[in-house]
Amino acid sequence: RLLDLTDRAEVSFCVDTAEGIRGASDFFAEREHEAPVLLEIDTGHRRTGVPFESDDEAVELARLVNDSPGLRLAGILTHAGHGYHGPQSEDESETEALQRVAREERDRMLAVANRLREAGVNGATPGELEISVGSTPTMAAFGNRTENGFRVTEIRPGNYVFYDAMQVALGAASLDDCALTVFTTVVSRRRSGSGAERLYLDAGKKVLTTDTGYGTDGYGVLLYNAQHMRRHPHARITQLSEEHGWVKVPGGAAFGVGDRVRLVPNHACVVAGMADELHLVDGQNVTGTLNVDARGASR
Prior knowledge:
Elements: H1 2-5, E1 13-15, H2 18-30, E2 35-42, E3 50-51, H3 55-67, E4 71-77, H4 94-118, E5 130-133, H5 136-139, E6 154-155, H6 165-170, E7 182-191, E8 197-201, H7 205-208, E9 221-225, E10 230-231, E11 236-240, E12 245-249, E13 260-264, H8 268-272, E14 277-282, E15 285-291
Parallel strand pairs: 1-2, 2-3, 2-4, 4-5, 5-6
Antiparallel strand pairs: 7-8, 7-13, 8-12, 9-10, 9-13, 11-12, 14-15
């Protein structure tokens, strides 16, 4: 699939192991094609990528890319997923946490770039080496800088087009910034023995997913006034079953069976992938429809 795309665009991809490099080399060399490759660096998320503090491994793998037929080292890439962890102490605010991780992400990548140049890795020179960073929350606090000629050349705030309740909790966005909402219907209403009202929505795990994160309260933010993006002060989506969202409202609920309500999901990325279509809305008017082309396209 990558090879097919190269007829229309320059497409690079990540590697972080010798096995992955050799496998990619075998594929592209056999087809007499040179592919641009980004060496993935782990700047603190501790998922995939070469640990930023591992001097020898980054240099060795970068050299292996350049020495492998069918591959060319285009740059280094990271995803600062630890930006989603929020403050790490009682004294650190959400804004300070984003600023800290954004600095770490940038500075650790610049340090890796300098180490590659000092080791004489081919292509590791300012203006030639791509340095790609990005997680949506850290980009809210990103500031570039130059170190020995190197600068970050690409940022990837993948969720900025939608934003969601996670980004709001992290301080990367406000509710007013959130473009993706879920329009759902109250299908049942019950009162518990404690006197709390329970509403049941026709959007459950198959729509909202079970993703939660730092600062989220339940499984999305129910809106009392969708036009002005005002959250309901009391209603909480406390539980999900496969087809239903369970909403708890202390005292009496303002919603009845059949009412349509909108909510901001915790994680817009996965919610968008759960639908066949997204409807564009301006106020109360539907102005268009977008097909989700990637729906069901995983192979």
